[in-house]
Amino acid sequence: MAIAMGNTAGAPGAQTGAGQRYYRRFSPIERVMHSALMLTFVGCALSGLPLIFADRPWAATLAQILGGFTGAGLIHRICAAVMIVVFVSHVVMIFAKAFTGGNALKTFWGPDSMVPQLQDGIDIWNSFKWFLGLGPRPQFDRWTYWEKFDYWAVFWGMFIIGGSGLLLWFPVFFSNLLPGWMFNIASLVHGEEALLAVGFIFTFHFFNGHLRPDKFPMDTVVFTGRISEHELKAERAVQYERMVREGKLEATLAPPPTEEAKWFGWIVGGTALSLGILAIVLIVRSFF
Ligand code: HEM
Does residue 251 contact residue 209 with C-beta atoms inside 8 Å? Predict the structure, then answer.
């Protein structure tokens, strides 16, 4: 079976015109929020990890680059504050969209929703059959099961890492409300959840989004917001056919990705990808 290797169509300067049609996959606000989440996550990870691995030479070097432990602490807090604002805005926007546009059912159920449903279980089963060579490659709708998994991992993680982080940030305030042992727990939970989140995002999420053969070395769709007709048909045939059937496809037609958005994806996204992989290498090395 032939597998398309690589994804250079989204590279800056690559031919995007010439009969190729594009559809809108992410709105401008979703693209901005993903970029802000990505940058603040990398910022929190790089400024927080030197505390966990304080006895490793690389941690001292990294902390020095970030302006010493004071500078790293400041970067950590700025990134954390922006991340919390992005997350709260995201939740507010979902509920606003659901309840003001009469879209509640569509937001929380159906093919456009991030809520897991029976079809995701069927897709997982069919994917494993495909991995083992026992069935054809499954086709997906708007969101695949692994995209939903990545989304919910970050969603719930935000409560754990954000909640424990706020306790560590404002101990005097929270000591009026909580017993002292909660701060020990918060410190432990924050560090362990950070390691889990870093380990997950910088391996699984990066692999799913960018490093698997179809996407390697980079999928710029979350930066450009556009998916080509070829990709839509090849990867999300169920969505494509549903939209044709419902007569909604033409309404999502969009101009080809701009060179600026592609450059942003390759430079800023590529830097985040490289820093994340470097962090994983340093963490793994620290255990041996
Ligand atoms: C989202 C809101 C967050 C808040 C409010 C927050 C806040 C904090 C604070 C106040 C500290 C103590 C550090 C110091 O005193 O300089 C800390 C430590 C730390 N943070 Fe965060 N943080 C957040 C998110 C994150 C994220 C997303 C990561 C990783 C991806 C992370 C990783 C770490 C690590 C590894 C430590 C060191 C923990 C330890 O010493 O065991 N933090 N955080």
Answer: no
Cβ burial 16-43 (10 Å sphere, 16+ → b, else e): beeeeebbebbeeeebebbbbbbbbbbb
Ramachandran quadrant class, 110 (left: phi over 0; alpha: psi -120 to 50; beta: rest): left
CA distance 141 to 110: 10
Task: Report which ligand 1 atom has the smallest distance to the Cα of 192.
Answer: 41
Pocket lining: 167 vs ligand 1, CB cutoff 6 Å: no
Instruction: Measure 243 CA to ligand 1 centroid, in angstroms.
Output: 43
- What DSSP line would sit under 61-94, residue for residue? HHHHHTTHHHHHHHHHHHHHHHHHHHHHHHHHHH
Amino acid identity for residue 102 in this structure: G
pLDDT at 106 over 80: yes
Ligand 1 site, residue 199, Cβ cutoff 6 A: no
C-alpha 264 to ligand 1 mean position (Å): 27
Instruction: Specify the residue with its C-alpha closest to ligand 1, atom 32.
Output: 48
The pTM for the full model equals 0.91
* Angstrom distance (rounded) from CA 10 to CA 180: 52
Indicate the pLDDT class of residue 287, thresholds 50, 70 and 90. confident
As given in the structure block, the two tokens for residue 199 are 């380990």
Q: pLDDT tens, 27-61?
A: 999 999 999 999 999 999 999 999 999 999 999 99
